[in-house]
Amino acid sequence: SAGWRVPQKLIGHTDVVTALAVGPDGTVYTASLDGKVRAWSGTDGACLRTLPGPASNAFSLAVGGPNGTVFAGAATGEIGVWSGTDGSRLVDLEGHPGHAVHALAVAVDGTLYSGSIDSTIRVWSNGDHVRTLI
Q1: Considering 15, 31, 57, 99, which has the largest number of Cβ atoms within 10 A of its Cβ?
Q2: C-beta of residue 108 within 8 angstroms of C-beta of residue 115
Q3: What does the alpha-carbon distance between residue 116 and residue 96 come to, in Å, rounded to a whole number?
Q4: In 3D, which of 30, 25, 26, 34 has the Cα closest to residue 10?
Q5: Phi, psi of 60 (to 5 degrees)
Q6: Are 133 and 124 in contact (CB under 8 A)?
């Protein structure tokens, strides 16, 4: 389409990129089969940081809540949670043990929804599993 172009490439992952999300400040987050979650400048494409801790193979990403919290759904069923402010690892949510988390969404109030190959959608608030929808 007219007007669309590739202004920059984000180079740094060593395997397939499986998910991406954009934070409220324009930071681009990517997950890859290399087991890493990276944060990139939405302005110039520079890699800002690799988020610490084992991401396993993350298949889904979401960014949301008041501080731009970063969530990554892993092949192992865990959901990694990082601070959107400084990238520090906050917690691992254990809600889909052994079943890959392929879908994540964050509501305006910071409530997290996770969908997995275990055929469930789980609802999380402040790091606690609140309920299972299906």
Answers
A1: 31
A2: no
A3: 7
A4: 30
A5: -145, 150
A6: no
User: What pLDDT was estimated at residue 82?
Assistant: 95
Tokens of 126: 């402040």
pTM of the full structure? 0.91
Read off φ and ψ for residue 92, nearest 5 degrees: -115, 125
Cβ atoms < 10 Å from Cβ of 111: 15
Q: How is the chain classified by DSSP, letter by letter?
A: -TT----------SS-EEEEEE-TTS-EEEEETTS-EEEE-TTT--EEEEPSS---SEEEEEEETTTTEEEEEETTSEEEEE-TTT--EEEEEESSTTS-EEEEEE-TTS-EEEEETTS-EEEEETTEEEEE--
User: Residues 48-105: pLDDT tens digits?
Assistant: 999 987 667 899 999 998 789 999 999 999 999 999 999 999 999 998 999 999 999 9
pLDDT, mean over the chain: 90
Q: Is 102 left (phi over 0), alpha (psi -120 to 50) or beta?
A: alpha
